[in-house]
Amino acid sequence: MKSAVVLLSGGIDSTTTLAIALADGYDAYALSFDYGQRHQIETQAARRVAQSLGAKKHRVAKIDLRVFGGSALTGEIDVPKQRSKTEIADGIPVTYVPARNTIFLAYALAWAEVIQAADIFLGVNAIDYSGYPDCRPEFIEAFQTLANIGTKAGVEGGRFQIHTPLIKFSKAEIIRQAFELGVDLSLTHSCYDPSPEGFACGECDSCLLRLKGFREAGMKDPIRYVK
C-alpha cells in the first residue's frame, strides 16, 4: 500500500479528508498540531478521529505559535461572534493564524520524506471557508512546487503531490461525503472558542459555517453546543 501524510485538525474537513485517503487505499499517517491554539481541545478530537478511522499512525507535533501571536486563536484578541455570511466572506478575519498552513505543510513534508511517502493530504476548501489565503488552490500549487525543489526526495527524482480532495466542495457537500464514507462526525470539533466543558459556542465563524453546512445537507449536527 502507498503511504500518505494527512493533516488532521479534528474538524469536519480534515476528518473527511482522512477518510478519503483511507478509501483510496493509502496507509494514512495522521499529523496534528498543538500550537498554542485557544481551541486546543481539537487535538483530543483528532485523536478520537484517527483511532476511529484507523490511521496507521497519529502524531501530535507540539509547537508554540503564541510566541508570535497575531491571531485570535493564538493571542489576546477576541474571537468574532455572530458575523453575517457577508461579513465572514469579506476579507481575512482575525482568526487567521499567520503562515499556519505553510508551517503545517512543512512538517507534513518532513514526515513524508522520512517515511518515503510521495503524497500529502490537506482538507482545505475554497468555497465555504473564512477567507484564509492559505486555503486557495494557488497556494497549494506553489507549495507543491516548493516541495519538489527543496527536498532530497524531490531532487533525487521523487514527486510529491499535495492532495486537496475537498477544495471545490461546499460544507454541505463535505458533510454528505463524510456520511457516505461512514464517518462519525460526533467525534469532530470545529469551534474556535469552546466552553470549558468543550461544548461549541455556536457563534464563531467556524461554528456558523458548520451549522450552515448541516442545514444545507438536511442533517442534524451531532455535537453539543452551549446554546
Could you please describe the fold and organization of this structure?
With about 230 residues, the chain is of the alpha/beta class. The chain has one domain (about 5-215): 3-Layer(aba) Sandwich (Rossmann fold). It is built from eight helices and five strands; from the N terminus they run βαβαβααβααβαα. The protein has helices spanning about 10-25, 40-55, 85-90, 100-115, 135-150, 150-155, 170-180, 205-215, and strands spanning about 5, 25-35, 55-60, 120, 160-165. It has a five-stranded parallel beta sheet, with helices on both faces. Helix 7 (about 170-180) crosses helix 8. The chain is globular and about 55 Å long.
Give the helix/strand layout.
Elements: E1 3-7, H1 12-23, E2 27-34, H2 42-53, E3 57-62, H3 85-89, H4 100-114, E4 119-121, H5 137-149, H6 152-155, E5 161-163, H7 171-180, H8 205-217
Parallel strand pairs: 1-2, 1-4, 2-3, 4-5
Helix pairs in contact: 1-2, 1-7, 7-8
